[in-house]
């Protein structure tokens, strides 16, 4: 079972920097994170509209700005999407959005489960899409895989982690060492994805 984190960022000296960039006459604030584990540039827009750019520790900052400019269309579309929910309680739009996106997320989840399960070959009962405030996903003892419809709005790496996490619970219905080794067989960077997922608070949009 995966629960959503409620914190946004832990500020560590020399690890995070607040930056600004102009994209199509829009001033965009973002957090630049240097990571010794990262092998390439990555960009994420979280549920509260905050933007994070992750760069390998030895990269030059000038590369970051070029990378962000190259992603201008994608970045602005994500920011604008989350703006419509800013300041609104979930009760106003949760059920409406759930019904709107449920079928799309179900199709996505089925495709992802089928893809990753080619490696594992696990048997399961069915896939359900739910609207929950604190869980990204869960796996029942009866073999049902349950996913929150809001995984649709997660960065791909975090979404894949949620899918694989619950898929592996079909074999190990716990969080033992055996479970994490199973996850690592198809998702070796699970620890980084798990940490980032905690920043994507479900109750903020």
Largest β-sheet summary:
4 strands, mixed
Whole-number mean pLDDT = 82
Radius of gyration from CA coordinates: 18 Å
Please give the CATH architecture of the largest domain. 2-Layer Sandwich
- End-to-end span in angstroms? 21 Å
User: What is the subunit organization of this protein?
Assistant: single chain
Unreliable residue stretches: 5-14, 88-93
The run of helices and strands is EEEEEHHHEEEHHH
CATH fold node name of the largest domain: Zincin-like
Estimated structural class:
alpha/beta
Q: How many DSSP H or I helices?
A: 6
What level of helicity do the residues show?
40-55%
- Beta-strand portion reads 15-25%
Name the shape in a single word. globular
Q: Tally the beta strands.
A: 8
Give the full name of the CATH homologous superfamily of the largest domain.
Answer: Metalloproteases ("zincins"), catalytic domain
Biggest sheet strand order reads 1-7-8-6
Count of folded domains: 2
């Amino acid at each position: 079972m995966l629960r959503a984190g409620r914190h946004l960022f832990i500020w560590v000296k020399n690890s995070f920097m607040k930056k600004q960039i102009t994209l199509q006459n829009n001033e965009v604030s973002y957090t630049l994170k240097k990571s010794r584990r990262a092998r390439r540039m990555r960009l994420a827009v979280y549920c509260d509209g905050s933007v994070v750019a992750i760069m390998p520790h030895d990269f030059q900052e000038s590369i970051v700005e070029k990378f962000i400019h190259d992603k201008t269309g994608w970045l602005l579309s994500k920011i604008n999407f989350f703006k419509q929910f800013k300041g609104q309680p979930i009760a106003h739009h949760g059920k409406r959005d759930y019904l709107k996106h449920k079928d799309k997320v179900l199709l996505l989840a089925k495709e992802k489960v089928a893809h990753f399960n080619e490696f594992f070959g696990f048997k399961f009962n069915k896939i359900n899409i739910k609207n929950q405030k604190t869980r990204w996903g869960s796996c029942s003892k009866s073999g049902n895989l349950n996913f929150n419809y809001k995984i649709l709005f997660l960065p791909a790496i975090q979404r894949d982690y949620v899918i694989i996490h619950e898929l592996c619970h079909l074999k190990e219905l716990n969080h033992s060492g055996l479970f994490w080794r199973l996850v690592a067989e198809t998702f070796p960077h699970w620890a980084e994805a798990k940490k980032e997922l905690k920043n994507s608070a479900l109750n903020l949009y």
